[in-house]
Amino acid sequence: MQVTVKGKQVDVGEALRTHVTENLTNAVSKYFGRPIEATLTLSRDAHLFRADIIVHVSRQLIVQSQATANDPYPACDAAIEHAAKRIRRYKRRIKDDHHRQEADFVSAPYTILAPREEPAEAEAEPHGAAVIAEMQTEISTLAVSDAVMRLDLGDLPVLMFRHATHGGLNVVYRRADGNIGWIDPHGNETAALKPAAAAQ
């Protein structure tokens, strides 16, 4: 697995690079024979160090985690452990998903908008939000349980997918109470989704 360790306004030494590469490779290789790549970015968060990890297990399966600590090594170790916990939680399903053919998907435009600012009292209502970036994203065809797994592994706030049974667009999202919400405009019978273990 190709591991990249980089600093964001933080100097990353060779010793830390080696430490992260070995530990992250060991944590991921227990479950995947050929993960694509992983990136750990170390940055400052006020007086703390923050480590953000993104592991591309396959083209459509991503594991993300982050942690903060007073020193770089504990921050990196905690982020690696959080990623390992997510992988362990779904280890059987991940292996099945990994050995299956890649899920069907469609490409869709994805736009990032700047937040709207409050207009001055004398100004009229602002026209539209400024576009920061335009790109493409993939909407996979998944079972609801697989969509929940991907939401949790990727530490995502929301995931849109095509329902594997009826092909309609569905959304799963993380609620403020830690549970997972599921929106199915087709009105299919919904099963209660168990909380996706928010504690990392």
UniProtKB/TrEMBL annotation:
Keywords associated with the record: Cytoplasm, Translation regulation
InterPro entries for this protein: HPF/YfiA_ribosome-assoc (IPR050574), HPF_long/plastid (IPR034694), RHF-like (IPR036567), RHF/RaiA (IPR003489), Ribosom_S30AE_C (IPR032528), Ribosom_S30AE_C_sf (IPR038416)
One Pfam family hit: Ribosomal_S30AE
Origin superkingdom: Bacteria
Subcellular location: Cytoplasm
Main location: cytoplasm
Positions of the Sigma 54 modulation/S30EA ribosomal protein C-terminal domain: 130-181
Cited function: Required for dimerization of active 70S ribosomes into 100S ribosomes in stationary phase; 100S ribosomes are translationally inactive and sometimes present during exponential growth.
Family: Belongs to the HPF/YfiA ribosome-associated protein family. Long HPF subfamily.
Assembly: Interacts with 100S ribosomes. Associates exclusively with 100S ribosomes, which are dimers of 70S ribosomes.
NCBIfam families: yfiA
Name of the protein this chain belongs to: Ribosome hibernation promoting factor
Native organism: Lacibacterium aquatile
